[in-house]
Amino acid sequence: MSSEPVLKASDISPELKNAVFEISSKAVEEFSLEREIAGVVKKELDLKHGNTWHVIVGKSFGSYVTHEKGHFIYFYIGPLAFLVFKTA
């Protein structure tokens, strides 16, 4: 699945947005299961941008979350929605 990320909502810096997009796009290319994609993205973000990140990947889900200011992004890559946020 090769598709450019489509931003829906965020409050993160452009640099962090680009990092999340790059990590997520690579995960989509390498893995097919949503659980695997989410796990890889979470581990990379925790490693490169500090703990604790939460990553939800899927085609249909609802959410209501609390996050650290400046650490929330919601976007699509192809049919997959990504909800990525950091908590203290």
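(ticket continues) Second input and output from the same batch:
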Amino acid sequence: MRSSTPVHPHDLSDSDLALITALQHAPRASWARVARTVGVSPPTARRRWEALVEAGAAWSSAYAVTAPGLVTGLVEVRCRPGTVDEVAVQLRSEPKFLSVTGMTGERDLVVTIVADDMEQFRRLIQSRVATHEAVTGVRSTIVTRMFSEGSRWRAVGSPETAAAAGSGDADPDPRGEHALEAQWRPVLRMLEADGRVAPADVARELGVSEAHARRVVRRVLERGWITQRIDVSLEQTMWPHALALWLVVPAGRLEATASEIAVMPMTRMCAALAGGASNLYVIVWLRDLAEATAVEAELARSLELRVLDRAILLHYYKRVGHLFDVRNRHEGRVSWVGDAAV
């Protein structure tokens, strides 16, 4: 049993992990539901969560990847020696650049772009990345399907935990999606700022009743147009490292292989790619760097695939809209919907 008292500001105790997992299963569950799941009072659950956020150990994120019309892609960037931090800090200010990550290996940075359409995706690469004087190379691929991403990862827990923490709400609204297309962006803007924003505040923003606002939020989350997740800092001892793998899988086996990788406990991201040498991109979390070779070997041994390239994550300059300095301290947020850092 791990101690209940962290020895490092970002180390996570058993009670921290239980709380984080409950919120990962249901980020908007009431504090009463969360409290029942973790066995504390609602005020205690809330205080513990606020303490984790204040310490930078955990936080809530909201983002859009699969909303209608959006194009998601990965852009690998090579920089002149000594300029990586400078380039990354400039790139991360672009709202549509969801994440900016420093990597080892053949690329210095990997930028995750979520664009409104293919034309915007192309323009962002040409005007915001390729024209930077310190950038020496750019290579892009399109994400065609997201088999798994950070919202599905769990610190600890089981399906039973998920059922206990869930909201319990059903979607009774049979109407089509047309109205949602005008509403999901304002809802996303509010969830970016506060993942637990009150339905009354959403109602005021949308100009609808509180009951209707609840339905809108529920529907955009259920359809996957907006994704919420609870993230934890890599500045802790349980999962301090991340390995990125560019894989080549036979086309006829891609879905089956990706589905198997997606449900592995260490998998943080598993995405099908088009337009490049690799057709599957995977990120796994590691407890120790020595695990990298073992993870790669196990995938190659148990599945029909070839590892085209690999890299170790060095630093998140931007992680799903959240900004971090070179010491991994949280220093702000850039709204995907808006135009400015906050």
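Agent notes: Residues 14-55 form a domain with the Arc Repressor Mutant, subunit A fold (CATH 1.10.10.10). Residues 1-9, 157-172 have pLDDT under 50 and may be disordered. Closing as not reproducible unless the customer responds.
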